[in-house]
Amino acid sequence: MKEQMDFKYLQRLAELYPTIAKASTEIINLQSILNLPKGTEHFITDIHGEYEAFSHVLKNGSGSVKKKIDDVFGRTLSAADKDALATLIYYPKEKMDLIARKEKNMDDWYRITLYRLIEICKTVASKYTRSKVRKALPKDFAYVIEELITEKPEVLDKEAYYNSIVDTIISVGRAEVFIIALSELIQRLVIDHLHILGDIYDRGPGPDRIMDKLMNYHSLDIQWGNHDVVWMGAAAGQTACIATVLRNCARYGNLDILEDRYGINMLPLATLALHVYGEDPCLLFKIKGSGSHFNKSEDELNRKMHKAITIIQFKLEGQLIARRKSFGMEGRRLLDKIDYEKGTIRLEGKEYRLLDTNFPTIDPKNPYRLTEEEKGVVERLQAAFLQCDKLQQHMLLLLNKGSLYKVFNNNLLYHGCVPMDENGKFLKINIYGRNYSGKQLYDVLETYVRKAFFAVDDAEKEKGKDILWYIWSSPNSPLFGKEKMATFERYFLEEPETHKEKKNPYYALLNDEKIMDRILAEFGLGPDAHIVNGHVPVLQSSGESPVKCGGKVLVIDGGFSKAYQAKTGIAGYTLIYNSYGMMLVAHKPFTSTEEAIVNETDIHSERIMVEMAPHRMHVGDTDNGKALKERIGELQELLNAYRSGRIIERT
User: Fold this and answer.
1) Which of 169, 254, 267, 328 is the most exposed place for a label (fewest CB within 10 A)?
2) What pLDDT sits at residue 587?
3) How many CB atoms lie within 10 A of CB 304?
4) CA-derived radius of gyration, the chain
5) What would the pLDDT profile of 159-175 be if each residue is shown by its tens digit?
6) Quick one: the chain helix, strand, coil %, rounded to 5?
7) DSSP characters for 307-340?
8) Buried-state track 217-253, b at ≥16 Cβ within 10 A, e below 16
9) DSSP of 496-510, one letter per residue?
10) What span, in angstroms and rounded, lies between the C-alpha atoms of 65 and 517?
11) What is the dihedral of CA 319, 322, 325, 329, to 10 degrees?
């Protein structure tokens, strides 16, 4: 049976390569690709809506562009010239507008700049096949750029040939757009593949712009973070997730993301908030962060909307927990633990006084029931989220490019943790009546995430929607990994001990090599592999290192979000994995795009070599290389079949 199947496969392969010559040529082509240097991978995590900083790090490839400038020009350019050239590559249009105001002879500047960019293009293109470079070329200038970056041995006077092309570009007035095209090509070729390890959404003001940028990125994968998953739940119409998304936006003064950029009408919520909390100052619901762009009346309205959606969230979560007993989260139903007359709440046998006791929409006898006005707001918001085309497109990108984990080139990528006990044993978690642990837990949760969007059976679809909220906030969720989400306590209780969110033992065991090797083995990897992890900020200011377990584990959340930077001491870690090895990059805070263009200030970054490859890695050392080697083996079998007469050539 197997021999019959193998022969049928060879017959299908013969349709693609109908002659010995064609099969042989393909083997030669694939073998040459195996010997090219490994492409550069770029790892970024926990972006949290910080579009400008993210965009800049994407443009500079975490220092990869400057590294190429150094490689090409060495000491032949001054540091100032290198900075100017790097800024031009990051922001070509904006930088040229500034230069044109000062430069007296733009033609000379164009000529010098074009030659410099062409030299960098030659270097960054040398790692790829001509076919791959050709696909990356901008359509308008594909032929000309290919001529300029390709060695032409048949041309005797190469200098005159290239000079002629450059002079023509300038004389016909196309130098500026050509420089833009070359700069974008360099950005494109410096990074071969991008990994986003979760938490694109919440806190910062530009998650939608980040998603727009990722929609056009040439090669990427995304490991969902808990903040991404709650937005996915909202887009699927899960009401507790919708309330959570609104509360997070209100908390950081970002409701305009929903209203202005996703077109979700905030008027019903604002009307409810003014009606119910008109005389309530809602002082516990101040904007976290600057909030300086709000005037007094806007700030007051935001606080009232913030409180209104927070109470709705607690009600909806209480209903969900009661409905899904298997989630085991009864302890997070807190509204029925309040003594509304005394203004206190009893938690774990201890009574605490509430900082705010004005709850006009809560019926103490049935605290999780929505009022008719609240119900109307929730229904209108649900319809708006489901009908928002832009949001649905962004979530489709997360579904198509995303997953809960990724195994890629001997690295295991995930956002949070593998839930375990104090001894490092994987916890068995009940998901809708069955227990799962380790990789199986990740796999079943991802299956339900996709059911939330694509299941035909209504009951399974509802299970999928509810599991998105579970992944967001459950102590047993691999994307959350804490004993509780203390949202209620942080708003309403003064006592710091109630605010603590104890982490899963996984985080205390990150330096235990046996346990980390067990995780790698669980996902099909050997002890020489790495775990790349996001989610929990590394406190560099307290001396914490992102390198754990002797370099086996790399925790690269260092505080991209401005909300974290005072705590972490830096503005995020990124990771570069190129043909020479793995390097961590620690970033200082990004000021602004305008300052980067005007003053040529890059994000100051420090590179830390994590692991040097024993030899320069090639495509043959990668997952893609393994697939190419399998293809070569299949083609060699096809050649044997041709030469033995089992399959006849078709000419």
Assistant:
1) 267
2) 74
3) 23
4) 28
5) 788 889 999 999 999 99
6) 55, 10, 30
7) HHHHHHHHHHHHHHHHH-GGG--GGG--GGGEET
8) eeebebbbbbbbbbbbbbbbbbbbbbbbbbbbbbbbb
9) GGGG--PBPGGGGGT
10) 35
11) 80
Separation CA 320–CA 307 (nearest Å):
20
Find all residues with CB under 8 Å of 515, minimum gap 6, and list them.
420, 424, 509
State the distance between the two ends of the chain, measured CA to CA, in whole angstroms: 30
DSSP state, 284? G
Of the candidates 477, 472, 483, which has an alpha carbon nearest to the alpha carbon of residue 431? 477
Rounded to an integer, what distance in angstroms lies between the CA atom of residue 234 and that of residue 385? 7
Dihedral pair phi/psi, residue 252, rounded to 5°: -105, 15
Amino acid identity, position 578: N
pLDDT in tens, 290-332: 555 788 999 999 999 999 999 999 999 999 999 999 999 999 9
| φ, ψ of residue 583 in degrees (nearest 5) | -130, 130
The phi, psi pair for 452, rounded to 5°, reads -60, -25
Per-residue model confidence as pLDDT tens digits over 37-81:
999 999 999 999 999 989 988 998 988 999 999 999 998 999 999
Q: How many CB atoms lie within 10 A of CB 105?
A: 8
| H or E, element range at 194 | strand 193-196
Class of residue 343 by CB neighbours under 10 A (exposed 0-12, middle 13-18, buried 19+): middle
Pairing state of beta strands 530-533 and 553-555?
parallel
Q: Are 59 and 180 in contact (CB under 8 A)?
A: no
Q: Which residues contact 87 (CB under 8 A, 6 or more apart)?
A: 95, 596, 597, 600, 602
Tell me, rounded to whole angstroms, the distance of Cα 534 from its chain centroid.
Answer: 10
Looking at residue 140, the DSSP 8-state letter turns out to be G
Q: Is the model's pTM score more than 0.90?
A: yes
- φ, ψ for residue 392 (rounded to 5)? -65, -35
Query: What is the rounded distance in angstroms from the CA atom of residue 167 to the CA atom of residue 107?
Result: 9
Which residues pair with residue 531 across a beta bridge? 412, 553
For 101, the token pair is 């105001």
- Name the DSSP class of 371: P
Structure tokens, 404? 């809960």
User: 429 has which bridge partners?
Assistant: 436
Q: What 3-state DSSP class applies to 585?
A: strand
Which residues in the chain show pLDDT less than 70?
1-2, 151-158, 290-292, 539-542, 558-571, 591, 601-606
Buried b or exposed e, range 449-477, using 16+ CB within 10 angstroms: bebbbebeeeebbbbbbbbbbbbbbbbbb
409: left (phi over 0), alpha (psi -120 to 50) or beta: left
How far out from the chain centre does Cα 264 lie? 24
Beta bridge partners of residue 414, listed in sequence order: 405, 533
Tokens for 41, please give them.
């991978």
